[in-house]
């Protein structure tokens, strides 16, 4: 029997790219009431990757719990999905990915760590997530491109920016660092930067695909 899958994604992983990996009903970032509405379509699996944080009410815990209690498998990761999965894992929501584990362990706690602005029409991200920035700045630190003090300045600058304004160019421009280090870090981000949320979104899709294979 063919199982019905509904996945909420957008800025972390486009519908077009996700569709190349798994055929599903892809919907925009989840908001309050969307999971309840999805239940009327009798899904077998709901994947939550992206969701709204501040533009409108976020997806509620109760509606996810309702889905779980009705027998729907709910998988989350990358962004809002990671946050809700960390909060509801004991009730049966499945969390996957680096961001989920960071929320679950308490390494990160705020929704600001994963929040990004996105185009409401194309769903493309318009800013960079703090969680990805932190990951890449730590990699640059390990490679010796920046010092520990540089890292602290970069993260402080990034955290002090309102999330829609947060991007690598702005953070590097506003941070007190040697220009040579800024140039080296900028090249590193362009050539080797990793989007943690995108990687985790792919892991969510892959996990659901494995579920379907049994």
UniProtKB/TrEMBL annotation:
The lineage of its organism: Archaea, Methanobacteriati, Methanobacteriota, Methanomada group, Methanobacteria. This is TfuA-related McrA-glycine thioamidation protein. InterPro entries: TfuA_core (IPR012924). It comes from Methanothermobacter wolfeii. Residues 50-166 form the TfuA-like core domain. It comes from the Archaea. Pfam families: TfuA (PF07812).
